[in-house]
Amino acid sequence: MIVKKVELHNFRNYENLELSFDSSRNVFIGENAQGKTNLIEGIYLCAFARSFRTQNSANMVMLDRPRASVTVDLVSEDMDKSISVILDRTGKKMIKKDGKVIRKTAELLNNLVVMVFSPEDLRIIKDSPEKRRNFINKELSQIRPRYYECLRLYNEALRQKNSMLKDNLKNSKIDENMLDIYDLQLAKYGTEIVKYRRNFIRILSERAAEIQKSISGGREDLEIRYLCSLSEENQYDALVAARDRDLYSGHSSLGPQRDDMEFLINGKDAKKYGSQGQHRTIALALKLSEIGIARDVIGENPVLLLDDVLSELDEERQTFLFQEIEDVQLFITTTDVNNRILKKMPKGNVYSVKSGTVFKNTLK
Ligand SMILES: Nc1ncnc2c1ncn2[C@@H]1O[C@H](COP(=O)(O)OP(=O)(O)OP(=O)(O)O)[C@@H](O)[C@H]1O
Asked: What is the mean pLDDT of residues 27-43?
């Protein structure tokens, strides 16, 4: 899949920007706070209908403007597609595909498949379980829209159940029938979520192990384990059995909202015993595996957004990354102008970003 054109209007610090891409290697260079990440965020918005760095979509609207719009034209499976997202200051958004309004995010999700790799991803091993669940959720939602739908419905039922449990702590009033309805819904969607996650983590573990081995010169065996709070068998019974505890604590104690992943190197927990270098290798292995899984499911390469991450990887890991993603369209942001990165992509386009304007220079 290839992004051909990006248009930003009143989006972050871009009043009007139109950029067409004739290379699959695109490097955006600029000092801090010039708009490099904003550009990547715009592309991401057309993939997920949300940002990767704010929950509040109004933040993306240029200050003092009523609305923002982003359009990405792409080619996927030899077909031209155009995705637009229009945001307004009140937080409302409208999504269009080829000029027609799309009402459900699930219908947008695998039109433009993008992966972001940012310095934050390098911390995934040490970060909170929530960050690791986000990683799983983002990838699976893009390639399996049904997963996104299950997650949405699960989270809605969980929100309602938790609010009821919390009220019960204050008023000691519980509607047993309603509680049962919530548990039935949680078990139904939770079972599907766990099946998707188990399968995804199994494939992720196999792929990432190969990459880890290769980068470490055969020294490191990586295993990724799924830490599942509630297995796919008899989720409803387990939820019913946990009711007294949930009523006492005021929240739902079991389910996919508690899941996590564990990383083992040569049988030892990488979180506790791994070096910083090993953590970086795992993060890189995860990202490359994610790309490979997406390619197998959607039948073509996703687009990769490398947001300020290259300078965090040493020469060896950078070289490995570029080798593995030779056919993937790249959008790279960097403040580093020492040409190390540029040498790795002689046919790429380089853009200078300054205060919401972008100039193109083609490398010889
Ligand atoms: N809603 C908005 N309206 C106008 N300007 C905005 C808005 N949101 C962010 N900005 C501006 O965008 C700039 C930050 O852009 P961005 O995050 O893309 O920086 P960057 O070039 O990636 O920098 P760094 O290398 O530090 O990450 C800042 O100047 C900020 O004031």
From this structure: 96
Residue whose entry in the numeric block shows the structure tokens 């209007």: 9
Is the CB of residue 362 below 6 angstroms from any atom belonging to ligand 1?
Answer: no
33 touches ligand 1 (CB under 6 Å) = yes
Using the CB atoms, write b or e for 333-355: b if 16+ within 10 Å.
Answer: bbeeeeeebbebbeebbbbbbee
Q: Which CATH superfamily includes the segment(s) 123-298?
A: RecF/RecN/SMC, N-terminal domain (1.20.1050.90)
> Ligand 1 pocket, 67 CB below 6 A?
no
pLDDT band of 311, cuts 50, 70, 90:
confident
36 is in an annotated binding site: yes
Say if domain 1-113+302-364 classifies as CATH 3.10.450.50: no
* Interface predicted TM-score (ipTM) of this complex, two decimals: 0.98
pLDDT digits 0-9 by tens, 259-276: 999 999 999 999 999 999
